[in-house]
Amino acid sequence: MGQTNPESFVQSSTLGKHAVVVGGSMAGLLAARVLADHFDRVTVLERDRLSETPEARKGVPQARHVHVLLMSGRRVLERLFPGIINELHAAGASDMDSAKDIAWLTPAGWGINFDSPLRMLGATRDLIEWGVRSRVVADPRIRLRSEIDVNGLVLNSSAQRVGAVTVTDRSAGVAETLQADVVVDASGRGSKAPQWLEALGYTRPPETVINGFLGYSTRFIRKPANWSADWQALYIQHAPPARKRGGLIFPVEDNRWMVTLSGAGKDYPPTEEAEWWEFARSLPDPRFAAAIEAGEPLTPVVGTKSTENRLRHYEKLTRRPEGFLVTGDAACAFNPVYGQGMSTAALGALALDSSLGDGLSGLARRFQRRLAKSNANAWLVATGEDYRYAEVEGPAAGLSTRLLHRYLDRVTRLATKSAKVRLRLLEVLQLTRSPTSLFNIGVAARAALV
Q1: Is 162 helix (H, G, I), strand (E, B) or coil?
Q2: Hey, what's the torsion of the CAs at 127, 130, 136, 140, to 10 degrees?
Q3: pLDDT tens digits along 133-156
Q4: What are 318-321's contacts with CB under 8 Å, separation 24+?
Q5: 145, 372, 404, 430: least CB-packed within 10 angstroms?
Q6: Are 66 and 257 in contact (CB under 8 A)?
Q7: Contact at 8 Å (CB) between 109 and 133?
Q8: Would you say 396 and 383 are in contact if contact means Cβ atoms under 8 Å apart?
Q9: Would you state the pLDDT for residue 12?
Q10: Strand residues in 211-352 grouped as ranges (E)
Q11: Which three-class secondary structure state does DSSP give residue 51?
């Protein structure tokens, strides 16, 4: 991958000597890149052992399933690491037009296809994260340490600010205390931040959990020789409450398809061989099963059921230590079926950058509020759809949610006929426009006639 040139970035005045990031996944890597413009040095602490090649990690179980980098996230990556998209292409990623190259069976029928500016990478999460990590570790301002367990936070002498973290280096068997001006927790769904705060005498953040009980099962399949179709990716979307099953054939590096079957409302897809194929054949378009049956299975099936939407409301804390921030899935984790994780992590990095631009005073409260605002659209998209399942658990959906479902059903039907409406819908799903843009006079007038 290309080398990072610190002089190519917009520099700001330094805020301190050292920042620590807990977690070396996408959210942590992007946070480290932003922090490097504001601190003399940045240390990233990752619990997994990291490879120099693109490989799945134990700490990112979702990496074994399809990941998409939405247009919003793609723009941020290119801004933070100029040229990285071309580097990922050179490493094997393909490029797709989200509106033209993806055959998408919506609950209302097949979406209309047309040329658009919404590009999507055909790549594994492993390749994308490896590309970002390669650029981060090439930055002399950043040090990435692996096989590190973070045990807790330490307040500074004022007892008002986090001033260090306690860690264990598993490879060396050594306990350490690392001083830091700022600590960012980007350790994912399994974040211990609520416990760390409680140990310091603070309250845990309130949580909102909405669970549509979705499961995944995925494997790699070699694309058939001389394969020809009018699509690069094929997506069968759920149509709740009646149709709870879906699937995605997604092109990735090395001439492979990553094939993910999904089932919601506790209709979990199996991981056993024969049952997996039977589930694929049960999808409403026979082209799905026919395509993958023509290919060569390369791996066993792997599954997961850890897919609930979980929002920790750090922005609502009335009392908090300064110098401690929480981002990525550690703050807001989505049902991954909507493909928002990497892109919301990227947008969170921009929120961090803008928050740091206003200095260290009040940083924790300022950042958590901006992050909550940044995540709001993605949360609305994910939870709004999950509320369609009768089995969903979480706060009761109100009348506004039910009315929104009716309106979006009309928009989705219109998106099978109108390229303009489908483009707007895709822009909302790709987090480049607010969901409120679906209510502009042009779209609303057309939807009312459907």
Answers
A1: strand
A2: -130
A3: 999 999 999 999 999 999 999 999
A4: 319/202, 319/203, 320/197, 320/202, 320/364, 320/365, 321/153, 321/155, 321/160, 321/161, 321/162, 321/197, 321/200, 321/202, 321/364
A5: 145
A6: no
A7: no
A8: no
A9: 45
A10: 215-222, 233-236, 245-252, 256-263, 296-297, 302-304, 309-312, 324-326, 332-333
A11: coil
Contact 129, 23 (CB under 8 A): no
CA dihedral 384, 389, 393, 396 (to 10 degrees): 60
Residue-level pLDDT at 66: 87
CA distance 213 to 18: 41
Is the preceding peptide bond at 336 cis, omega within 30 degrees of 0? no
Q: Which residues pair with 121 in a beta bridge?
A: 95
Give the pair of three-digit tokens for residue 381. 């998209």
Task: For residue 303, give every residue at least 6 positions away whose Cβ sits within 8 Å of its Cβ, in sequence order, or none.
Answer: 215, 216, 217, 218, 268, 269, 270, 271
- Alpha carbon distance 57, 192 (integer Å): 19
Query: Is the CB of residue 355 less than 8 Å from the CB of residue 363?
Result: yes
* Residue 139, token pair as written in the block: 């930055």
Question: In sequence order, which residues have a C-beta less than 8 Å from that of residue 443 and are 6 or more positions away?
Answer: 411, 414, 421, 424, 437
- DSSP H helices, 174-306, are 193-199, 273-281, 286-293
Q: Are 55 and 219 in contact (CB under 8 A)?
A: no
Q: What is the reported pTM?
A: 0.92
- DSSP 3-state of 324: strand
- Report whether 186 contacts 23 (CB < 8 A): yes
Helix, strand or coil for residue 80? helix
Q: Which residues, listed in sequence order, are joined to residue 312 by a DSSP beta bridge?
A: 207
Q: Are 291 and 249 in contact (CB under 8 A)?
A: yes
Neighbour tally for 398: CB within 10 Å: 10
- % the chain with pLDDT above 70: 94
- Give the model's pLDDT for residue 449: 64
